[in-house]
Amino acid sequence: MFKVALLVKDNGLAGRLELHLRGKDYQVMVMGNIASALGVLYADPPDVLIIDFVDEDAITRKKILDDIKHDSYFSMMPIIGLLPEELISPEQLSGYPLDDFITHPINEPVLSSRVALALQRISRVLDNNPLTRLPGNTSIQIAIEHAIGKPLAVCYLDINNFKPFNDTYGFSRGDEVIRMVARISNNAVKEVCGSGFSGHIGGDDFVLIVPIEAVDAVCQTIIGNFNHIVQDVFGEQEKDAGYYLAKNRKGTFEKIPLLGLAIAVVPTAGGHIKHPGMVSEIASDLKKLAKQSSESAYVIDRRRN
User: Are 99 and 118 in contact (CB under 8 A)?
Assistant: First the structure.
C-alpha cells in the first residue's frame, strides 16, 4: 500500500483529503504541525507528499519544500502542491520545485488522479534502491561522472563480515543493518557538508560524494555513529567477546568478528581520473587496505595529492 503524507494545516480540508485518499486504498498520514514536519518525514518517509500553500505558514512550507528537494534521500519523492490561483504563473511556479500542483478549491478526485499519475511516473524513472530509498546505480554513475575533475571525493562504503551475519541472523536483520547504514551515511553527509550525494549500489555497498575537505569529518562521523548504534544488533555475550559463532562453508563453527565498516575514498580532482571506471578500480584496491583493520576504517588515495 502506498503512503501519502498531507502537510495541510486546515483541519477541515485535511480531513476531507484523508477520507478520500483512504477510499482509494492509500495509507495517509496528516501533518498539521509545520515545525515537526521534517522530523516526521525522516522517521516515516511517504511515497508522495502533498503540501498546502494557502495559509500564513506558506513561507515555512516553501523552505521545507526546498530542503526536501535538495536531500538525496527525498529528491525523487513526488511532491504535489495545493496552490492559490495567484501562484500559478510561470514566474511564480519557477520558485517552487514541485512535481505537480492543483489549485484551490481542491477537487478530491482530481487530486487522487494526480497522486496515481505521480506514482506511475516515478515507478518508470526511479532507480532508487527499494530497501533504503537512496539513489541507485544510474544516479550513482551520473554523479561520479559529474564529480570527475572537481575538488570532490567519491567514497565507496561496505559492511565488513556482512554475509556471515546475514546468513546467521537472517535477511530481515540484515536488511535492518543496511537501512541503518543508509541513514547514518546520508545523515553524516548532511550534518557535515549540508549537501552532497548518497547512493546505494545494492547489498551492503554504498557510494557517497562529498567535498574533499570534508572527507575526514564525514568518514569519522559515519564510523563513530555506526560503532555506537551497531552494538544494539548483538547480545551482551557477543559484545563482550567481540565475535559471534557462525557456520562456515564446511559446516563447522568459526568466530566471526562483529560488524564494521570499510570506506575507500577516491579524490576526483587533478585530471588523473579519465572515466568513472577508474574510480571504482582505485576504490577496490583501497577497500582491501581498509578491510585489513580489525575495526571500522577508511583509506584515502593520497598518491596524487
Answer: yes
Query: Which residue type, as a one-letter code, is found at position 198?
Result: S
Q: What pLDDT sits at residue 41?
A: 84
Kind of pairing between the strands at 79-83 and 100-103: parallel
Average pLDDT over residues 132-155: 92
Rounded CA gap, 282 and 279, in Å?
Answer: 5
The pLDDT of residue 69: 79
- Give the residue among 134, 38, 122 at the shortest CA–CA distance from 80: 122
Ranking 60-64, 81-85, 108-112 by mean pLDDT, the lowest is: 60-64
Bridge partners of 297, per DSSP, are 262
pLDDT of residue 125: 64
Instruction: For residue 297, report the phi and psi dihedrals to the nearest 5 degrees.
Output: -155, 160
Task: Find the Cα–Cα–Cα–Cα dihedral 272, 278, 279, 280, rounded to 10°.
Answer: -160
**What's the one-letter identity of residue 157?**
L
8 A C-beta contact, residue 49 and residue 41: yes
The owner of cell 503524507 is 5
pLDDT at 304: 58
How many degrees, rounded to 5, is the angle at CA 270 between CA 222 and CA 195? 35
- Strand ordering across the sheet containing 100-103: 27-30, 3-7, 48-52, 79-83, 100-103
Residues 6+ apart with CB under 8 A from 305: 267, 270
Say how far apart CA 228 and CA 231 lie, in whole Å. Answer: 6
* Assigned C-alpha cell, 250: 564446511
* Residue 152: all three cell numbers together: 570532490
pLDDT at residue 112, as a whole number = 96
Q: Which domains does the chain have, with CATH numbers?
A: 3-125 (3.40.50.2300), 137-300 (3.30.70.270)
